[in-house]
Every structure is written in C-alpha cells, then in structure tokens.
Automatic annotation (TrEMBL), chains A, B:
Protein name as catalogued: Carboxypeptidase Q
Matching Pfam families: Peptidase_M28
Localisation per UniProt entry: Endoplasmic reticulum; Golgi apparatus; Lysosome; Secreted
The entry's keywords: Carboxypeptidase, Endoplasmic reticulum, Glycoprotein, Golgi apparatus, Hydrolase, Lysosome, Metal-binding, Metalloprotease, Protease, Secreted, Signal, Zinc, Zymogen
InterPro entries: CPQ, Peptidase_M28
Domain of life of the native organism: Bacteria
Stretches assigned to the Peptidase M28 domain: 256-439
Source species: Pseudoxanthomonas indica
Quaternary organization: Homodimer. The monomeric form is inactive while the homodimer is active.
Length: 468, 468
C-alpha cells in the first residue's frame, strides 16, 4: 500500500450514475454465498499462497531478478489453483536499485544510525550538520537557503489507528519532504520512518523529486534512531555522514499476472479483485502485499470450485510494481479503459492481513440495495456496512478514475505501520484466521457482485488522475 | 547478561558459614531505608544516567573506541553524582571486531538472510548446503563427519519466562554449538537467535571454540529468517552463502570504573553493587547493561545524599567487558581477593530494566534474620523474599567463588530476550517507573547491608571457578 488515504479522497469525486433499473441479487445467489463464506473460513488456501510467495520468491523489488520469478510464480499458482484462463500483460517502468546504505553520527558522540534509502533516492555521500524539524510544515516554513549545506531531518512520529489515517502525514513527509528540503538548500534528507513501531527496522517507500530540483540522498531512520538523533541534537550541533549507493538504472518490463474463473452466462463481464505482486526489498512483503495476492487468489479459487460458476467472470490480478507508482494499476487501466462497462466492479486488497471491519461500494442509488445485500452477507464476518465511506485500492484507483465502480473492504490496519515497508514484513506477522476472514469476505463479495442482476455503476468518464 | 542461569547454580555450592553472632539491622536504619525507598521511587537519577550513557556513548563494544569513551563517561558521571572516591582499575582482554556480515540463500530461491556474527567468530566466506537440527542434542548426536563441507543450522526457539530460564538452552547453542558442528565436519555454523522476539534483529553474543578445533564462521539468524530457512529446507536441499568479516585483533586494556560513598564508621568495609559498562555493538546497550549501571549509580548517589552515611562504604562498580567473558568481574576478583572479608556483600544488576520481584542473599544462618529484615524493607516494592533461590550476578560470580557473600535482586525478564544482544536494545525499551523501582530496591538493600551490625558471610575460600 502506498498512499491509500489520499486515494480514498477520490471517492468523493465520483459522480452518481444515471438512474437505471435497480440492481438486485437473487436469493439463490445469497444462499451460495453463505455456504462459500463458511467454507472459506475453514480453508487455508490463502495462507498457503502467502506462504508460497513469501518463502519461494521472498523479497521482490520491482525490476529486480525476483520480479521475474514472482511473475512466473503467479502464472504457475493461478494454474495450480484451477483458474481457467491465465495470462500476463506488460508493465514497463524505470528501475531503481538499492545497493548499500550507511549513516553515522560524527564528532564527540560517534555511532552508527540505522537507516534505509527512500525508493527513488540517488546515491551519494554527504556529511553535514543536521537541522531538525517537527513536521513537514515546519520544514516548508524554514527561511530560503537556511539549510544550505545542511541535512534536513523531519522528526514526525506517526500515530497508529485502525484506518492508518496518520499515513497521510507520514507518507507526505516521505514523498514531499526531500523536495521541500532541497528548496531550502539541503544537501541530504533524513526522516523519522513513517511507522508506528519501536524497532531498528527503518521504513522505506517511494519518494519523488519535483521537476527542476537536483535530487539529494534521502533516507529514513528507524524510530529508535530518530529518538537518538533528536536526543543528541538537544545537546548541541550534530554532524551526520550519510552514504547511499542506490539509484535509477534504465527501465524494466514486468507483468500484470491475471487469472480468470469464467462466468457462466456473461463471461465477457468481469469482477476484478487483486493485490500487488511486487514488494519492497527489505522484507518478504507478507502483509504488503502477498496477503492481498493470497486473499484474492484464494477467493477466485473457492469460487472456481463451485459446481456452477457465477454469471460473470472473476478476474484476479496480481499487479506489477504498485510500490513505485501504481505502474501495474495504471497499465491495466490504459489497456482496458475501452472496456470499462464490461468491468462490473473492482477491489484491491492492499492494507495488510488484518480483519476486514467495513464494506462499501461506489455504486449509485440504483445499486445501493445490492450493495446492502452484499453487506448483509458480509455481516456474519463482523463487517459493518458504512455507506458513506471508502475508496478504491491503489491499483484500482487509476481505472476508478476512468469510471470503474469500486468496492471497499476495509482492513484493520492498527498494526500495519509497525511493519509496512520494513524488514519486519514477514510471514510470521500474519494471523491465519484473520487471513481466512479476508478470504471469506472477498469470496462473498466477488461471487455476489458477479452473480447480481444488474451493474454497480461502471461507466466511461473523463479521467481524473489520482492526486499523488 | 551472559550466562546467568548457569551462574545461579553456583549458589547451591556455597557452604554455610560457621555460626557467629547473629547479624541485625537497627530500627533507625530501617527507618532511613523506608525514607530512601519512597524518595528513590520519585527520583529520576537512574533514568538520566541510562539516557546519558546510551545517548552520548551509544554502543560500546569492549575494546572499541567507544570503550574508552565509556570509561571516561563513567569517571565523569560518578564525580558529577557526588561519589567521594572515583578511580579505575585495569582490565585486559583480547579484542574482537565486527566489520561486516552477510548471508544469502543461493539457488532457486535466492534471497538475503538477516544474520549477525557471534562474538568470537572468525571471518571467512563459506557456501554450502545447510543441515538443520532441532536443538543442540540433535547436533551432538549427528554421526561423525556427517557435516563434512556443510553448514550446521541449530533451529531451537527459546521460550520466554520471567526468570529467562530457557537461556540455558539458547546460550548453550551459542557457546557450544559451533564446536559441536566443527567436530562433525561443518565448515560454517548458523543458529536461530537465542531470543524470544519476532523481529529482523538477530542476537549476537560470545561463542567459544574448544581447544584443538579450527574455528569456522558462526552466526545467528533473526527469528523470522530462521523460520524462512526452515520453510525452505522443508522443500528440499538449500545452499547458503555466509560471509563474515570479523575476528580477534590483539589485546586491549579497559577499566573497571569505581565510585564510592565513604562509610561513616567502617569505611574499609564495602557493600559492592554495580552493572557492566560494556555492551554489544548492535544496540546502545540500554537494558544490557546501561540499566544496571544507572540503577546502581543512582542508588549510590541517593545514599550519598543522606546527611549521615551508612556505617560501611557503598562501592559502585561499572565493570569492563562482561560480555566477552566476565573480564571486569574476574579482574576485580583477582585484584581484591585478599580483601574478601572486607566485602560485606555484593550484587550486580544485569538482567535488564524490568521490575524486581524477588530477593535473597547467600547469607548463612547467622545473617538470615538480617536478610529477612532487608526483605521486609523491600516488600512494599512488590518484592518477595525467596530464601532458597538466587545467585550472584555475572560479574560478582568470580568473587563469589572466592567467598564473597552475594545478594540476588531478581528482575522480571519476560521481555529481556526480545532485546538482549540485538540492535533493538535501545533506551525506548525501558520503562522509567520500573527503573525507579529497581533503584529503590538497590538503594534499600545497599543501605541496610552497609548499616547492619554484623556481616553476611563473606570469607576467603577455595576457588570454584564458574562452570562456563
């Protein structure tokens, strides 16, 4: 997950669709969904998929050698799980590499600092006095040239909540902080990790440099190291040496990997669910986002095991390179925008592996009753219908901007930013029962959306690109 | 803390002292102790000392440049805290350095593994098939030569409890595992960290190679990496490349740093309390053992603030190089063994910063009543008298073997092995209130032991070296 809070805001911009015949879900479909729900809670397919991806492929940075292994893994896994069509679609993007990264306090209190380069950072070694800012606004308010020859340090501590809402701040410090620092003359950038843990596992994530600025080495400190640097700065001036070997290196073509369970009567119409296949390189990408891949592959698999397929096709997408700019989601939107009306609805699982607690769709009034029917089928899983909330998952958002209807299955992210983009994002952090609850929810949602009489409001519209 | 469980066993070997006049603590001393206890709970000296050492010195591996900074820091801190005598005593030991460490799975599932070299490991690069063992006994039971050209992997998961009792197993796997592996022909050694956490922060710690064996590169995997390697091995043969740059490099002379609050009537007799000044290099040594230094410096300081000093002297020792073989404790015992009877009693704080829950001393029958008086003064802190339990702290144990009476102030170590010898051993892990409870307990104990009428059984005896 990259910038979900910003993307959620998109939902408010979606216009209500024109009035049409109300969408409804037949009682027989609801009965099948209830059986699927109970079956999914007892099924460990999702767990096995996550275990397989995180173990056999491991870390899979977009563009790395593991990217190709991950795509091959996904093709093989879709086939093994009985999907009846499996294919790939190309996704091209610039390739960023991390080679080494070190930082240390220099002077009277010499000691190493645990850091990780932000994705997109250039390499380089800088040694300079550090200037601390409590948050991004403080950095942006610094006088022009006041950081000339200095390293900026934004020391904002993210707070945890179920919705991960403070990532709005943490994510902005990562994406916009370096450019703000460069504008004030800084030659390097440090930030307290956008995270809520207390471990020596810094949080990486993509950053961008505004046009016309010369990028500077930019890194995140583990939270205990940010504490330490802050304590040292309270004693007087502190010099830090920051040495990064990383950077952009050509381009790479990866793949969106797609598997389908063909619909029985409207096979050209698809319900899209998915997660992203790439991860950051520090962990094995268990919660971000093997979980999403496992949840949605398992949901498709369980629907595929039914004697009678739903009316529409279930299309599961393992998106390429979400982390560095929604490349997979953008490529899918570009390749399929002409078919937006054939897309019944879409949902991406990309906020970890915590239990789903809320549900909504972008459906217009004509499909509100059907949305509520799905919500009622999800309610036994402890999921609340929140008809005014939500937004599309990251890789769904580019297509949602083209008019794709979206569903929101909100995961409990209280612990998400303890692990997000760190070395600690590993399989042991996932609760198999919570994962099964996710699989049950996606199975019920996808089946009912695919079996509904009528649509959820997908229609071609003018593009409003995500504001990120 | 290095091998406390083994050292605790020592206590059973201590003979009861000859009968003598019962030791007693005057009511006036108990009244002062009660005031000290309440004062200590409100005092933040211990916290400030820990903050200062971990921040200003940071990691302080024995023999590193930070070792000398730590000793200078301790001299200055004792003086600043009003100790009336401050001096150092030399401690010489071989110097071990960590320069770099890498490991990776090679082959069909290539991925990095998070490891750290065991202290004392030689450098070197080995690449070989891994053979997993569930525990040390399984490794020791392997057929001769069965590991020829292979890397041994002992995959034992330590369990957490208040007493840290499973460190008996975890510590043995670290200290004895490499030699056991070499005897079977192994060219490298990996172990699941002797830890109870689930983070990518491997646990270092000293190992030793038995005489006559050629040491091999030896490292600990973070627990998620041990999980990962185990899962990969369940799929088939796995090759790992282990590359360590580390090793012994000459010798170094550090210092035990000692501060005293002079006694009012028996100044030549001393109550010894302390912690160890060195740490491993991965964290800032907050719980291991800035806490012990802070607790005992603060206790001495608070006693030093009294209008009337206790009868005997309070001697606080910041021991050098505990981690690599109790060098500071051994040096102190060697230098002071002729004066064992002038040592009233000794206690080291070296099991983190959790609350103290139990108390005992090695005192013979003649001082049991006084021990119980101290226990009663500690009871309001939630500390239980456990008259059959305990043992000397690590650096006290060499002198205890010479006849020093010891006190046991047992800290809650439930979380200790989440952090022990890892990068995560940082200040943020310490609860200031729990630390103050420790200071209160050491203050009460040291004051009452110093003000008692009579001794606690210290007497010269034949040396029984610690069995480690």
């Amino acid at each position: 997950m990259r910038l979900a809070p910003l993307l959620i805001a998109l939902s408010l911009a979606l216009p209500a669709a024109a009035a049409e015949k109300p969408t409804a879900i037949p009682p027989s479909s609801l009965a099948v969904a209830a059986q699927l729900r109970e079956q999914a809670l007892k099924d460990d397919t999702g767990w096995k998929v996550v275990e397989s991806l995180t173990t056999e492929v491991g870390p899979r940075l977009a563009g790395s050698e593991a990217d190709a292994r991950a795509a091959a893994w996904a093709v093989a896994k879709f086939k093994a799980l009985g999907f009846d069509k499996v294919w790939t679609e190309p996704v091209t993007f610039p390739k960023w590499e991390r080679r080494s990264e070190h930082a240390a306090v220099i002077g009277a209190h010499p000691q190493p600092l645990t850091i990780t380069a932000l994705g997109g950072s250039p390499g380089g070694t800088v040694q300079a006095e550090v200037v601390r800012f409590a948050d991004l606004a403080a950095l942006e308010a610094a006088p022009a040239d006041s950081l000339k020859g200095k390293i900026a340090f934004v020391d904002y501590q993210m707070k945890a909540d179920r919705a991960g809402s403070d990532y709005r701040n943490g994510g902005a410090i990562r994406s916009r902080g370096p450019s703000a620092a460069i504008r004030k003359g800084a030659i390097g950038y440090l930030m307290r990790s956008a995270g809520t843990d207390q471990h020596r596992v810094p949080h990486t994530g993509i950053t961008r440099f505004d046009e016309g600025l010369t990028p500077v080495p930019s890194a995140a400190l583990a939270t205990p190291d940010a504490d330490q640097l802050s304590r040292l700065l309270s004693r007087g001036p502190i010099t830090v040496k920051l040495a990064l070997d990383c950077g952009w290196d050509g381009s790479y073509t990866s793949q969106n990997v797609i598997g389908e369970i063909t619909g029985r009567s409207l096979p050209q119409e698809v319900v899209v669910i998915g997660g992203h296949l790439d991860s950051w390189d520090l962990g094995t990408g268990a919660i971000d986002d093997a979980a999403g891949v496992g949840i949605t592959m398992a949901a498709g698999h369980l629907i595929g095991q039914l004697k009678q397929a739903p009316k529409r096709t279930i299309r599961v997408i393992a998106f390429a390179n979400e982390e560095q700019g929604l490349y997979g989601g953008r490529a899918y939107a570009d390749q399929h925008r002409a078919d937006v009306r054939k897309h019944q609805i879409g949902a991406e699982s990309d906020f970890g592996a915590g239990r789903i607690y809320a549900f909504n769709t972008s459906a217009p009034e004509s499909a509100r009753a059907a949305t509520q029917q799905i919500a009622e089928a999800l309610a036994p899983l402890g999921i609340e219908y929140q008809p005014t909330k939500g937004g599309p998952g990251p890789d769904i958002s580019p297509f949602a901007a083209h008019g794709l209807a979206w569903a929101w299955l909100a995961q409990d992210g209280t612990d998400y930013f303890n692990l997000h983009h760190t070395a600690d994002d590993t399989l042991d952090k996932i609760d198999p029962q919570a994962l099964a609850q996710n699989v049950a929810a996606y199975t019920v949602f996808a089946y009912l959306a695919a079996d509904a009489d009528g649509g959820f409001g997908s229609e071609a519209k003018e593009v409003t690109p995500p504001n990120e």
